[in-house]
């Protein structure tokens, strides 16, 4: 992973932590911000790269709330303790795909980045899936150290 840039992030209380290996340098990162009502209200600025790698840990699974907006095809992994959602996993694909909330990165100021604004709320499902296949992170690992196991389907938590 010599050509990857390592970025660490977490929810506010640290219950959800992640490491993102980006093939793009910090100077080349372009953020996306959805202009739908839900994304606008929580101020998410999203980043991903198809060839990026996301390794995430949830320390207390009981504090996780899977929140869905708009099309209900993706789960926002929100920490119930601090109400921050560091990433979103897409459930419409066979393999999980993820996008990161740039505001949850450590030592990174999302405000200084180039941001492209879109409204994905009325995007047809086929187009949305095609876009996510080429833009979202396709190498995702989600672990739950407190129960000492790795889930094979991290996007399929049952309690909300």
Walk me through the structure.
The protein is mostly beta strands. The protein has a single domain (5-144), classed as Metal Binding Protein, Guanine Nucleotide Exchange Factor, Chain A, CATH 2.170.150. Helices cover 11% and strands 36% of the residues. It has two helices and twelve strands; from the N terminus they run βββαβββββββαββ. It has helices at 37-42, 125-135, and strands spanning 5-10, 16-22, 30-34, 46-47, 53-58, 64-67, 74-79, 87-90, 97-101, 114-118, 139-144, 149-150. The protein has a five-stranded mixed sheet, with no helix packed on it. Strands 4-9-8-7-6 form a five-stranded antiparallel sheet, with no helix packed on it. A hairpin with a 5-residue loop joins strand 1 (5-10) and strand 2. It is globular, with a radius of gyration of 15 Å. It starts with a strand and ends in a 10-residue tail after the last strand. Mean pLDDT is 82; it is low at 148-160.
Instruction: Kindly provide the radius of gyration, computed on alpha-carbon positions and rounded to a whole number of angstroms.
Output: 15 Å
Mean pLDDT: 82
Net shape: globular
Unreliable segments (pLDDT under 50, ≥5 consecutive)?
148-160
Q: In the CATH classification, which architecture applies?
A: Beta Complex
| Total count of helical runs of at least 4 residues | 2
**Share of β-strand residues:** 35-45%
- Which structural category do the helix and sheet elements fall into? mainly beta
Taken together, the total number of domains comes to: 1
Number of extended strands? 12
Enter the CATH topology name: Metal Binding Protein, Guanine Nucleotide Exchange Factor, Chain A
Report helical residue fraction: 10-25%
The biggest beta sheet reads: 5 strands, mixed
Terminus-to-terminus distance: 35 Å
CATH class: Mainly Beta
Q: What is the spatial order of strands in the main beta sheet?
A: 1-2-5-11-12
H/E series: EEEHEEEEEEEHEE
Domain CENP-V/GFA: 7-121
Keywords: Metal-binding, Zinc
GO molecular function, one term: carbon-sulfur lyase activity
Family: Belongs to the Gfa family.
